[in-house]
Amino acid sequence: MAWSGSINWDSEHETTIRNTQGTLARASQSIARSTQIAVETEQIGTEVVGKLGQQRETLLRARQRVADTDAELNRADAIMRKMACAVVSNKLILILIILMEAAILAALVYLKFFKKSD
Hints:
With 118 residues, the chain is mainly α. It contains 1 helix and no strands. It has one helix at residues 9-114. The protein is rod-shaped and about 160 Å long. The model has no long low-confidence stretch (mean pLDDT 90). Belongs to the VTI1 family. It is a single-pass type IV membrane protein. This is Vesicle transport through interaction with t-SNAREs homolog 1B.
């Protein structure tokens, strides 16, 4: 007796296998895409790390140049202060020389014109 409502197990089994194979193929493609993205991301990360290393070296060199410039400015400031002190002391010496010359000149004028000859 053939039962009209019987299930064709072979057909169902083939359909399930095809569906499973399709799902596996899509999953494999998704994994392949994910792997490719991970590889590209790793390459980009490596490039970024390399560029950051170069920028770090650039910043370190710039920092060293700034420190060297600061040291040179400090030395220049010390030299300028010494020069300013030298200028002030030279002016004081010049004033003293002028005062001594004026005193000598005044003494000579006094001796020549105002001192009574004996």
